[in-house]
Design a protein that fits this description.
Layout: E1 6-12, H1 16-22, E2 40-46, H2 49-55, E3 63-67, H3 71-74, E4 78-80, E5 86-88, E6 94-97, E7 112-114, H4 120-129, E8 136-138, H5 144-149, E9 155-158, H6 162-165, E10 172-176, H7 177-185, E11 189-197, H8 200-204, H9 208-225, H10 227-234, H11 243-253, H12 256-259, H13 262-278, H14 301-305
Parallel strand pairs: 1-2, 1-3, 7-8, 7-9
Antiparallel strand pairs: 3-11, 4-11, 5-11, 6-9, 6-10
Helix pairs in contact: 1-10
Length: about 300
């Protein structure tokens, strides 16, 4: 029997928060997806976020994760969804160092290991210190802490689980960029975003994009409502984190902002990308109206409790 469903290639990072959000959409070992995916068949593509940033201009994936800072470069090809974002609510990427130092010292001396020039973490650091005001080298995110341990760098910009484990490496926190951004703006720091290709209404018929946005929101909601199973699903992708630490990491970045970042989240995205454009780091942001699902984060008891 032919499968006449429209295949949607959904690309996301192999990180616990992304796996948590989207596992309900995927078939596994011949078993149907836990969620009803209507006329769509979702195909997972798990790729490091900096690689996804590099691939986004090609439009290879119908739905893709990307760094917020990467969106202006592909805004002609993709639409942001209000669902599926990662917001640092008073926390975020951190600069850590082998020795204590003042923030101002980051402009003067150490080469900082960063997880990629397209990442929101690098954009936030550039806003904090000034574009071109510090030296850096791009290093795969999961190699930054080992490189610091080995003495290859004196400072590193860490993302993902490194935000929770850097103290195990006897490293010192120099600045938490999520805290810095909130103290400056009163807003959460937009980090990872989710985007749908603009041509899908033409390919799948009118209303396809809106339908997909609803299904994405339903997937995040399903994962939240089946939290124990969702945490179990992320453990193979947790890079050595135990269940407790993996759950803590997920709670940082799958919460009320993830279901629908709302007006405050939208304000944060617009301000962040306006400021990165002002320093010449990203192209100017055009008109931006994220695709929202029919439900909002306020509808979820889980969201309100996190």
């Amino acid at each position: 029997m032919n499968d006449e469903r429209l295949t949607i290639r959904l690309a996301h990072s192999p990180d616990p928060d992304d796996v948590f959000m989207w596992w309900p959409l995927f078939e596994e070992a011949g078993h149907p997806a836990p969620m009803d995916t209507a006329r769509f068949r979702f195909e997972p593509h798990r790729v490091d976020i900096e690689r996804l940033n590099a691939l986004a201009p090609e439009g290879r994936f119908e739905i893709t994760a990307m760094s917020c800072a990467n969106y202006p470069s592909v805004q002609d090809r993709y639409l942001l969804t209000a669902c599926g974002s990662s917001m640092g609510d008073g926390y975020g990427p951190r600069v850590v160092a082998r020795h204590p130092m003042a923030i101002e010292s980051l402009r003067e001396g150490p080469v900082i290991a960063i997880p990629g020039e397209r990442t929101s973490a690098f954009a936030a650091l550039s806003l904090c210190l000034g574009r071109g005001a510090f030296r850096y080298v791009s290093v795969p995110f999961d190699q930054i802490l080992p490189a610091l341990d080995a003495g290859e760098f004196d400072a590193g910009l860490i993302i993902h689980e490194g935000q929770l484990t850097f103290e195990d490496h006897a490293l010192h926190l120099i600045v938490d960029l999520g805290q810095w951004w909130r103290s400056r703006t009163g807003l959460p720091l937009p980090l990872g975003m989710n985007a749908i290709r603009r041509d899908l209404d033409a390919l799948g018929g009118p209303g396809t994009i809106a339908h997909l946005a609803r299904i994405l929101e339903q997937s995040v909601r399903y994962a939240m409502e089946h939290r124990e199973e969702s945490i179990r699903r992320v453990l193979p992708w947790a890079r050595g984190m135990g269940g407790e630490l993996a759950a803590k990491f997920v709670d940082l970045y799958v919460n009320r902002w993830t279901l629908d970042f709302g007006e405050q989240g939208l304000a944060a995205v617009r301000l962040f990308l306006t400021q990165t454009a002002q320093i010449g780091l990203t192209p100017a942001l055009g008109a931006m109206e994220p695709i929202a699902a029919s439900h909002t984060a306020a509808d979820s008891g889980y969201a309100a409790s996190r």
